[in-house]
Write a structure and sequence with these properties.
421 residues; alpha+beta; five-stranded mixed beta sheet; three-stranded antiparallel beta sheet
Length: 421
């Protein structure tokens, strides 16, 4: 019995020792471990935001997804990319690349880039024609500030004294350009105009001044491209094609079409009435640049209703019914269309009475070509005059006189060439 009692006592002591060991182990673990609260089984409150104690209550935050920048198909606007000789392309790109101020869109135009009749003799001499550039920028004040630091000699003395804000404010005046002329760069003389991208695109879409939109109806060489400008330029080219078709008969040649398009920007230009621009300039341009004009407009014409222009043909035919002409008329640029509406007031039932009959009446008017020509001249006249006066401010008196003399000399040589031919 004694052995049985000892065994029971020994088992009880062992159980007590195990219980004490388990207790000590649990306490030490609890002291070292940070317990996390249990997960809530209720759904998070997402439908009702927590009420604010502020009055008035702040607007709730709205998360906007960032949209990707729009991109154009690689082949879109390929008609705008006109080839030039490798030497000319390298020279143009080298000149534009030498500017430290950021340029979003740049192109070169004029007889220095594409050949014109009457300019051959000038190319044989050292006084080659001046290269003309247009730079489209985002912020004109910032651009002129950087450019004045890099090229102070491009600006007249008073512009350098008054600073970039003076150049920017002067540029904002209609038609929104600042020109620096007779600038020697890379062994040639250049003239470059500065305009904001917003102003350029507005002119391409709506024709408020037709100053640059009209120049961009003609062949040009794109040096730095921009998707927004390329899109609006395609609209501008289509608008020029529609306008020319409305002023042409049922059948005509492609040269007549190109002359009508090229003449849009010269309608109403006061320089055409002075001995500073050759009055045969449109014909000189089209005669040597017919292939470039065709590249610009042939594909666009295939998408217009009622136009028949075969791939290898130089003859063009169009549907001159009131319905076909009304389709072109409705899609003219805003400024030109507004002026056509003003001319149509009082000449028949108002537009509100019967819109379909209204468009057919205007499109069928035999005086529509004269109305379009007259209103285009009015659009062009004031901006062209204002820019000529601004040229005295931006270039200074010395360069302005030099530029005028060069223009008169060019006019005289072009007149002599036209008379001899």
């Amino acid at each position: 019995m004694l052995s049985t009692a000892r065994s029971s006592t020994r088992q009880a002591s062992a159980r007590h020792l195990q219980r004490l060991t388990r207790l000590l182990t649990t306490d030490s673990t609890t002291s070292r471990t940070v317990l996390t609260p249990p997960l809530s089984l209720s759904k998070p409150e997402t439908s009702k935001p927590r009420q604010s104690r502020l009055y008035p209550r702040p607007r709730p935050a709205v998360l906007y997804e960032r949209q990707a920048l729009p991109t154009l198909p690689p082949s879109f606007g390929r008609n705008q990319v006109l080839p030039v000789p490798d030497f000319t392309r390298a020279l143009l790109e080298n000149i534009v690349g030498s500017f430290e101020a950021p340029i979003r869109y740049a192109f070169a135009y004029g007889s220095g880039v594409f050949e014109q009749a009457g300019c051959e003799k000038q190319k044989d001499k050292e006084d080659r024609p001046m290269l003309d550039f247009i730079f489209a920028v985002t912020h004109s004040d910032h651009w002129h500030s950087i450019n004045m630091q890099q090229h102070p000699g491009h600006y007249p003395l008073h512009a350098r004294v008054l600073g970039s804000s003076f150049a920017s404010k002067t540029q904002e005046l209609s038609p929104g350009l600042w020109f620096n002329a007779f600038v020697p760069m890379k062994g040639v003389n250049i003239k470059y105009g500065v305009i904001t991208v917003d102003t350029l695109c507005a002119d391409l879409l709506n024709w408020p001044t037709l100053y640059l939109a009209g120049r961009m109806h003609k062949p040009l060489r794109i040096i730095k491209d921009d998707a927004r400008v390329r899109l609006t330029q395609q609209v501008n080219l289509t608008s020029a094609l529609r306008t020319a078709l409305l002023m042409l008969p049922e059948s005509f040649t492609q040269r007549q079409l190109f002359s009508a398009i090229a003449g849009i920007s010269y309608s109403g230009d006061p320089r055409m009435m002075l001995p500073v621009e050759n009055r045969g300039k449109v014909e000189n341009m089209v005669s040597r640049q017919e292939d470039q004009f065709r590249e610009l407009y042939w594909r666009l014409a295939q998408g217009l209703p009622g136009v028949r222009w075969a791939a290898g043909s130089k003859s063009v035919e169009q549907d001159t019914s009131s319905y076909a002409r009304a389709a072109h008329l409705k899609k003219l640029p805003e400024e030109l269309l507004k002026r056509v509406h003003q001319r149509a007031e009082g000449r028949g039932p108002p537009r509100e009475a019967d819109e379909g009959a209204y468009w057919l009446r205007i499109a069928g008017d035999e005086e529509l070509p004269l109305i379009l020509h007259s209103e285009i001249s009015k659009i062009v006249r004031y901006p062209a005059t204002a820019q000529s006066l601004k040229g005295i401010v931006s270039a200074g008196m010395t360069k302005s006189l030099r530029y005028s003399v060069a223009k008169v000399s060019k006019w005289w040589k072009g007149t002599s060439f036209s008379s001899s031919s």
